């Protein structure tokens, strides 16, 4: 066995040596001169900063097909560039946007969550109060109901994957189970629906079955380990997995 191994190594060295001779014969400069030392190896780099950002060489990786309705301030959508990202989690800065009245600038100190109606105790929560509640973290994707709408055209669109299907993103969401707050307020067993209303100028509202609210509905405060981005619901959003 050892003899065979030694023979193999001798043959390997001979082959490598021959390859080296071939390289020298075809490109003598490449074999004898070291590669040029790049400038970033010759001097110290940039200093530390308070909040990281992507490399400047990745500046072309941005949300794509950003469209706002004419005459509005941000009523429209911006899509995730699916062809330029990889992995399970979408970067918060590339998570798609869908707005009906622009991105509101909400002060978390003044923002309140109101829970009232068919409950024993109407409650108002500050953001600081919610941050003290038990939280859960779950990875969920979020998709706009209008995603892939360009495929309904008679002819196939000449668009990228992100421009066609980019109204979908995936994040690690962390927040307070809605069930905890409903139980604290003493929700009436006869209540069958919840009406959830947003805090932007559109005041969008949706009806939610109480069974869903008591199951896995979440009041998300964090996205991918940091507070929600303004374009994704800061400082608080209702997240309904599967809806």
Q: How many extended strands?
A: 12
Structural class by secondary-structure content = alpha+beta
Rounded mean pLDDT is 89
Main β sheet profile = 5 strands, antiparallel
Helix content: 10-25%
Distance between the termini: 64 Å
Give the CA-based shape. Answer: globular
Radius of gyration in whole Å, from Cα? 28 Å
* Contiguous runs where pLDDT drops below 50 for at least 5 residues: 18-24
Strand percentage: 15-25%
Mind explaining what this structure looks like?
The protein is α+β, with helices and mostly antiparallel strands. 21% of the residues lie in helices and 24% in strands. It contains 6 helices and 12 strands. It has helices spanning 2-26, 28-32, 127-130, 161-165, 178-185, 210-213, and strands spanning 64-68, 76-79, 97-99, 112-115, 123-126, 136-143, 168-177, 193-197, 205-209, 218-223, 226-227, 237-239. The strands form 4 sheets. Strands 6, 7, 10, 11 and 12 form a 5-stranded antiparallel sheet that branches. The longest helix has 25 residues, at 2-26. It is globular. The termini are far apart.
């Amino acid at each position: 066995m050892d003899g065979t191994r030694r023979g193999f190594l001798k043959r390997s060295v001979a082959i490598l040596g021959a390859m080296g001779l071939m390289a020298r014969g075809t490109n003598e400069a490449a074999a004898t001169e070291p590669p040029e030392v790049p400038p970033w190896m010759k001097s110290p780099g940039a200093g530390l900063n308070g909040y990281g950002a992507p490399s400047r060489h990745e500046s072309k990786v941005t949300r794509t097909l950003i469209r706002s309705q004419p005459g509005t301030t941000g009523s429209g959508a911006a899509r995730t560039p699916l062809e330029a990202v990889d992995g399970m989690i979408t970067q918060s800065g590339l998570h798609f946007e869908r707005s009906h009245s622009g991105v509101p600038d909400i002060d978390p100190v003044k923002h309140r969550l109101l829970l009232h109606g068919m409950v024993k105790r109407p409650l108002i929560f500050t953001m600081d109060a919610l941050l003290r509640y038990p939280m859960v973290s779950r990875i969920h994707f979020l998709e706009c109901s209008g995603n892939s709408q360009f495929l309904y055209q008679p002819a196939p669109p000449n668009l990228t994957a992100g421009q066609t299907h980019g109204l979908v993103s995936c994040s690690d969401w962390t927040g307070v189970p809605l069930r905890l707050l409903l139980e604290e307020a003493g929700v009436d067993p006869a209540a069958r629906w919840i009406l959830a209303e947003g805090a932007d100028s559109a005041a969008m509202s949706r009806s939610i079955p109480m069974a869903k609210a008591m199951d896995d509905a979440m009041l998300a405060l964090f996205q991918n380990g940091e507070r929600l981005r303004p374009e994704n619901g800061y400082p608080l959003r209702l997240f309904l997995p599967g809806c």
